[in-house]
Design a protein that fits this description.
4 copies of one chain form a homotetramer. The first copy, chain A, is of the alpha+beta class. Chain A has one domain: Chorismate synthase, AroC fold (4-Layer Sandwich). In chain A, about 25% of the residues lie in helices and about 25% in strands. Chain A has 7 helices and 19 strands. In chain A, the strands form 6 sheets. In chain A, strands 1-2-3-7-4 form a 5-stranded antiparallel β-sheet. In chain A, a hairpin with a 2-residue loop joins strand 9 and strand 10. Chain A is globular. The two termini of chain A are about 35 Å apart. Chains in contact: A-B, A-C, A-D, B-C, B-D, C-D.
Amino acid sequence: MAGNSFGKLFCITTYGESHGPAMGVIIDGCPPGIELTEDMVNVELARRRPGQSAIVSQRKEQDQAIILSGVYEGITTGTPIAIQINNEDPKSKDYKSLENIFRPSHADYTYKAKYGFRDHRGGGRASARETVARVAAGAVAKRILMQEGIEVFSYVQSVGNIFLEKEYQSLDLNSIDANEVRCPDAETAKQMFQYIQDIKKNGDSIGGTIFTVVKGCPVGLGAPVFDKLHADIGKVILSINACKGIEFGSGFEGAKMLGSEHNDVFSTDDNNVFTLTNHSGGIQGGISNGMDITFRSVFKPVATIIKEQDTLDTNFNKITFKGVGRHDPCVLPRAVPIVDSMTAIVLVDHFLRNLKLKK
Amino acid sequence: MAGNSFGKLFCITTYGESHGPAMGVIIDGCPPGIELTEDMVNVELARRRPGQSAIVSQRKEQDQAIILSGVYEGITTGTPIAIQINNEDPKSKDYKSLENIFRPSHADYTYKAKYGFRDHRGGGRASARETVARVAAGAVAKRILMQEGIEVFSYVQSVGNIFLEKEYQSLDLNSIDANEVRCPDAETAKQMFQYIQDIKKNGDSIGGTIFTVVKGCPVGLGAPVFDKLHADIGKVILSINACKGIEFGSGFEGAKMLGSEHNDVFSTDDNNVFTLTNHSGGIQGGISNGMDITFRSVFKPVATIIKEQDTLDTNFNKITFKGVGRHDPCVLPRAVPIVDSMTAIVLVDHFLRNLKLKK
Amino acid sequence: MAGNSFGKLFCITTYGESHGPAMGVIIDGCPPGIELTEDMVNVELARRRPGQSAIVSQRKEQDQAIILSGVYEGITTGTPIAIQINNEDPKSKDYKSLENIFRPSHADYTYKAKYGFRDHRGGGRASARETVARVAAGAVAKRILMQEGIEVFSYVQSVGNIFLEKEYQSLDLNSIDANEVRCPDAETAKQMFQYIQDIKKNGDSIGGTIFTVVKGCPVGLGAPVFDKLHADIGKVILSINACKGIEFGSGFEGAKMLGSEHNDVFSTDDNNVFTLTNHSGGIQGGISNGMDITFRSVFKPVATIIKEQDTLDTNFNKITFKGVGRHDPCVLPRAVPIVDSMTAIVLVDHFLRNLKLKK
Amino acid sequence: MAGNSFGKLFCITTYGESHGPAMGVIIDGCPPGIELTEDMVNVELARRRPGQSAIVSQRKEQDQAIILSGVYEGITTGTPIAIQINNEDPKSKDYKSLENIFRPSHADYTYKAKYGFRDHRGGGRASARETVARVAAGAVAKRILMQEGIEVFSYVQSVGNIFLEKEYQSLDLNSIDANEVRCPDAETAKQMFQYIQDIKKNGDSIGGTIFTVVKGCPVGLGAPVFDKLHADIGKVILSINACKGIEFGSGFEGAKMLGSEHNDVFSTDDNNVFTLTNHSGGIQGGISNGMDITFRSVFKPVATIIKEQDTLDTNFNKITFKGVGRHDPCVLPRAVPIVDSMTAIVLVDHFLRNLKLKK
């Protein structure tokens, strides 16, 4: 209710501040009987971990999952799964100077105005460090999806003006993690990497887009009206720090299309119903239709830059200020596993919501 | 839980099928003491009503609100407000021929697959007629926003390739309803109107975009992490039939920007804190910052077209089929009040969630 | 959230005031494929209907269910079921004199203090007339329970000091409706009937208790910790007007028992696991164990009596006042179907919550 | 949704198993600006702690609260409060022998049937050790109540047949913790203590009742219909391990009363509205009326006894079995702070739900 929980049947609640002792997540509603170990979670955390390459924040965190409940002898029991990740390298001192500053395009001002009190260190609860707890939950969700034959693939489609034009069908989606940028086209990835390094040297930051495709989703996920599958995916993706937009299937391009061009014609072969095109992005009337689910999300450049900027202090005096603290020049590579995780969580939630009475 | 409710403190639940006896909404959580009459609701319903102009569906519905509870002598009492709108012109016969067809890009196939049973008449629950209940709820939400000095303005920004390039600041937002298209630029509206008429003559349909601005929103609405203000707005706008995407502030353009360009610098005059630019779209860290909230949503062309199309029947045989039933060649003009309504509902919900303990 | 909804997967929301135009309920989450007609609902409404005998309120209501959505050709479709019951005999004039009075032990004072505004006619939303909507929802829940072989039986166990000592196992539970009191022991029922008639003649009212047994409940319903099956049953039964307490299994008598007496020893025959005693009331650790679920609820005497009483007017002046309006001298006979209904709703909700992933 | 959360605006989620590494609670929705330290939580935990006297379980737990988030420099920030309590003395070996046994009147059988998998050690999630997390949350709730002038007092009213006949008004409620039994009448407490010691020596257990009174509750808490204040209190008290019933105000005695006896007559003095009697238990129409809120709850004897009992093993073979593990011969003294805590949590939740729009 206060906004730190998501999901109806697979419900996650996260806690922790960037520079407090620990981050964590409680997953209530995970079915019993799923194999789950700390290592399975760690694999996903490693994809999001700072310090993993030259183009991400150099904060040093091992990000090791500690499972505190809900798993017995490597199997989920149906009781709440608590996963904790300790903060090892907070460097709170770095942030002392920020105590009385409203940094541009950060949440400093809005949190202060809303709550009156805040933990300013490293953005506190507003920090993207919160997403480590989401990825831990996503790791659990992915175990369930795997069992059901559903796979989520996200990759960096653009950084600044560098845009991967190829369609996802022509890419090797298993090569996403083959480079630091998480763009499954080696040549484009190389350009992106170089570009991000230049941005970083310059003390600046840059935005980009992520393309996501879900394969193997059965027909029938999503609830009509308010909890349409893409509405719920939209909500959680938009809830990721720095995300400013999302589009499904034809997306904004669909605004320019005629119905006769846009309609996805149903067809069939011996075994399957499918559509000849997929402008719907795999979702019709809010419910998955068995085709690939596709969407694209956009992330603004991170607000922390190592440049002089005008702003206000907490007494509303005009000051100048230069960013400090370790930061990502481009969040996209680390946003990939977060987008994967949030998508997986929504899919599991709707999968469980779609269980049916036996005849 | 089954997806027909939205909102935590201002919670709406809609019911009704396109060709059933009535549509309706229950609003649970409306504060007591708000002036509310059926006429106040009817004004909003009239903006969404079919048959209001030559470029919308000609289904004849008076769409008169009947308030069944929650209001006594013109004042809300704090108990649930039930508003019903009878269906007067269902013409179910038109749909008899559709009983055994999966129309392309409709929800026929997904509903059938999900539920096994469906009311096929006019799309049943999947019909955009459901949104009449949302607009009724939106009318109530707007009464509360009015009292708090918050205004929501949505307008048609593009239809097909016709795009209104002017910024919202240069438009007269009070003239949105001055033309049938709901584009507050008379010249552009005229082009759009002509274009939609041509589309209609052709039996086709066309997509477009809506621009929304919220004025007067106080600082502090929105909850951190999952219930960020734009995440909740995103969810409800994406839940509107035919909506395929949404972007806030700089949106997808932000992908190409540097942090040093994108950051919104705080400043102040004698009375207010503001930012010099508004790439954030009025929301930072998921919480409103007092600037205008801005977003853009895209609507695909409606699936019903009066053209021959290939598809499958409910036995999965390939057939050809030509659309019947009254439909909108372009949903944008009627989507405007729906976008307004859903935005208003989210804002009221977060306004109530932001009430504070007295010191 | 504002308290007019209950249930997680089988979620009901009621609306309507005693003297408004209609009462109603929206059921969101009813599975598709359940046979449902208005007559099936009417059968249950008739059990609760005023005017059904000499010992209940003589308000004349036909209480005919109108199904507005969610059912097509006699089968539920999975979309929200809206059921409306029109108010036909409100006699609001009777209540004009009550506009400025806080009646003793009614909700007049608390509603006024909470909301500032209220519909005073017949108690408005606080009236037990609200329960007609619950019974309509209960009728739907019972259809699902029937399909799963689960039956709920409630009967009047005591009225004032007249107490049916026989255990439920020795009663014919199919004879509950055989008399006006709904006590399945003809001799005791006769005494109760006579006693209630005397109370009524006297302008007074009397309390009593209801005993409920659920037969055929499978093992496994109920969720650990907060949503224990008896906790959820407790909540909804206590939410019925005039209910002041509930006890499960051994109940308050259990306070005096030793563990060695109270423990229910497990045993087995060829087909079943069972316990030799059932002090647990069919629920262990919050989860049904397959034995009969048993509980007892108490209803205070209704506050409306046709006797002179001291009280305050809405300006806090001391006045005397004599009850008007039609009322029940004893709510117990009509409370029976309400207790049945609320129990059925909780059971269906937990039944749906207990659906499992397929292996 | 899976039952490990409670509360709408002040929402708690607990995790942890009896013999896992830790127990904990996340509180989402605690207002910012409340003073909170680990010591404030520890004071409440000490009231519930095992080993605190000769008549409770001798499991050795320090039960020290570790606040992981939501508090900065001793003040709540409005972000989720995570409190963890490590398990220090699990003695899991004691439970090895129980792995394949369904103990009588425990949750072993129902958990196994529901989930297929369970952590059998010490009852796992079904253990009353879970309540340590509730008491931690209750400590936070009590800080808010204190600020609002609301106090909750629970005490042991009966153990077995030893019943404290005095009314709460004649007792010194500040002396509840003056003895090990938590009965604020020294003479009765002494008898109870002696009786419990005898029970313990005998390897048996005994039930009892707790009386609770809330002082200083403002008028207006509670929501109509399903979330009546006593319905929500009823739910959470019934959700406490071993609780089998609850009654408010006149309770089960009310069944025998006439309306003319039971009605609480309103009166007034210069400053206050009050009722001359309080059969309503401080709640009318589900909403607090400003009088003391009173209720009584019953706890069955704990299932663990050190006596030979018949039961089944997990292969459904009949066996005999004798309890092992440390246990409470009578849960009542330790249940007192749990009842206090759950009551405080409900009151805070409804206090926040009762915040109003400013005029």
